[in-house]
Amino acid sequence: MDESSVVVHPPTAAGGRRVWLDGRPLGVARSLRALTRLLNEAGWEGADEVDVAESPVIEWHGGGPETWSAWGDPWTAHPPRRAGLT
């Protein structure tokens, strides 16, 4: 795994997180698997999801490797309403 500087920005309202590598945009990842794929394509050959989630060179902004939505879990954040209830 390369020792580059990686910044994973907070989730956007549209979904996914912008990823920057060494001060330049790399792309948007919508999951840890997608982030791992982006980094592998950028030279982090052989890195797996555990490597990426635990890497000390990745700066996670707005949540860690388990956060991919700006809204959180829709079932706990906004539980469904039943008809006829206020």
Average pLDDT score: 85
The rounded distance between the terminal residues' Cα atoms is: 54 Å
Main beta sheet, described? 4 strands, mixed
Please list the strands of the largest sheet in the order they lie side by side: 3-2-1-4
Shape: globular
Radius of gyration: 16 Å
Unreliable residue runs? 75-80
Strand content: 15-25%
Number of helical segments with 4 or more residues:
3
What does this molecule look like?
There is one protein chain. The protein is 23% helix and 23% strand. The protein contains 3 helices and 4 strands. The protein has helices at residues 32-41, 49-54, 74-77, and strands at residues 6-11, 17-21, 24-29, 58-60. It has a 4-stranded mixed sheet with strand order 3-2-1-4.
Q: What is the gist of this entry?
A:
The chain is of the alpha+beta class. The protein contains three helices and four strands; from the N terminus they run βββααβα.
Layout of strands and helices, then pairs:
Blueprint: E1 6-11, E2 17-21, E3 24-29, H1 32-41, H2 49-54, E4 58-60, H3 74-77
Parallel strand pairs: 1-4
Antiparallel strand pairs: 1-2, 2-3
Can you give keywords for this protein?
single chain; 86 residues; 4-stranded mixed beta sheet; globular
